[in-house]
Amino acid sequence: MGVACIKALQGPGPGIDGQHVMATAKHFAAHGQPEGGTNTGPALFSERTLREVFLPSFEAGVKEAKIGAVMPSYNEIDGVPSHATLAAR
Questions:
Q1: What is the largest CA-CA distance in the chain?
Q2: CB 10 within 8 A of CB 65
Q3: Structural element, H or E, at residue 81
Q4: pLDDT for the residue numbered 21
């Protein structure tokens, strides 16, 4: 569903024309759950959950739909910013 949405927003490509807009996939890689009213709580997910649940849609957006932008999440995974955690693995 995400791939279809991205393609509909961005058009046939490779560039954006006057009838379409650039899509942004967010929040990579997993948005943390608000804790105590703070919206920057850590993402308490195992690596397996991240790889099986969260990452496939981002991968499809990049590889299949050629998403124009990816917004990183501002939470942490195991004390490291989530977008840095997965990039380092």
A1: 44
A2: yes
A3: strand 80-81
A4: 95
pLDDT at 27: 84
- Render the burial of 10-27: b for 16+ CB within 10 Å, e for the rest: beeeeeeeeebeebebeb
- Taking the C-alpha atoms of residue 29 and residue 39, their distance in angstroms, rounded to an integer, is 15
| Number of C-beta neighbours around residue 89 at 10 A | 8
What's the whole-model pTM score?
0.79
Q: Which residue has the higher pLDDT, 38 or 50?
A: 50
Token pair for 57: 């849609």
Contacts of 16 (CB under 8 A, 6+ apart): 10, 22, 68
